[in-house]
Amino acid sequence: MEVSFDISKKVAVITGAGGVICGVMAREFAKKGARVALLDLFPERAQAIAGEINSLGGEAVAVKANVLERKSLEEARAEVLARFGRVDILVNGAGGNKKEATVSEDNPFFSMDLDAFKWVFDLNVTGAVLTTQVFGELLAKQGTGSVVNIASMASVLPLTNTVAYSGAKCAVANFTQWMAAHFNLNYSPNIRVNAIAPGFLLTEQNRFLMQNADGTSTARGDRVLDKTPMGRYGEPEELCGAVIWLCSDAASFVNGAVIPIDGGFSAYWGV
User: Fold this and answer.
1) Termini Cα distance of the chain
2) Active-site entry in 165, 187, 233, 268
3) How many CB atoms neighbour CB 188 within 10 A?
4) Which three-class secondary structure state does DSSP give residue 186?
5) Domain boundaries, given as residue ranges, for the chain
6) Model-level pTM?
7) What are the pLDDT tens digits along the chain (271 aa)?
8) Nearest-angstrom CA–CA distance, 49 and 185
9) Which of the following CATH numbers is that of domain 11-199+236-261: 1.20.200.10, 3.40.50.720, 3.40.50.10610, 1.10.10.10?
10) Active site residue 165
């Protein structure tokens, strides 16, 4: 059996593709020859990335989609099929955190805004479930495909303060394993569902926790770096290799896995 990391000509749908991390993924998929549909609630952000990909000889389209509305996702699916004819890969990249759902001295757990808590769960969990329902139906009908979810180090152990995000990402990891078995047992053994579990990258969602306004590290940021053997934050590009591998035939027997990409964070306990 030949080991192939080739994803050229495959059609990849990426949600949250107008953001930094998933925008990088879209670019890397296109460099490897995949045709990419960039789904985002704010299509102008995705359009800028799609335009860049097309100008470099790739093939990409930006599509407006709200991962919390079935009708919006169904319309996006129709647009993707009209353009590319099929879907081979789904990356559930839409997600994030909210400051109001993070516990702090100014926002104690006992008075934390539950609407903010639900917002984080909806975006990370309900969004992945609903998107997989809509696009996963295509995979079930054709009998092949790969889904990649975005879990987190918080999926393994809850992180202090990020109560909503930790719970939501734990649910994403569990959903990944459940869906991997469900697709195989009910539709096809050639559909795979996996996840990556990134360690700490500096994003707009977590920067307020890791850095002060002047760019210096917060006490939490110091603790994160101290527990990361590589001693630094990750870069979005460093997530892409594992995602491309999971979507290729090189990972043909990898299913229901949650792959850490964390600079050793999950392997080190500080002693």
Assistant:
1) 43
2) 165
3) 16
4) helix
5) 11-199+236-261, 206-233
6) 0.95
7) 788 999 999 999 999 999 999 999 999 999 999 999 999 999 999 999 999 999 999 999 999 999 999 999 999 999 999 999 999 999 999 999 999 999 999 999 999 999 999 999 999 999 999 999 999 999 999 999 999 999 999 998 888 899 999 999 999 999 999 999 999 999 999 999 999 999 999 877 677 778 888 888 898 888 999 999 999 999 999 999 999 999 999 999 999 999 999 999 999 988 8
8) 37
9) 3.40.50.720
10) yes
Tokens 């790969």 appear where? Answer: 146
Amino acid occupying residue 14: I
CB 168 within 8 A of CB 121: yes
Which two three-digit tokens encode residue 185? 């047992």
Place of tokens 């335009």: 51
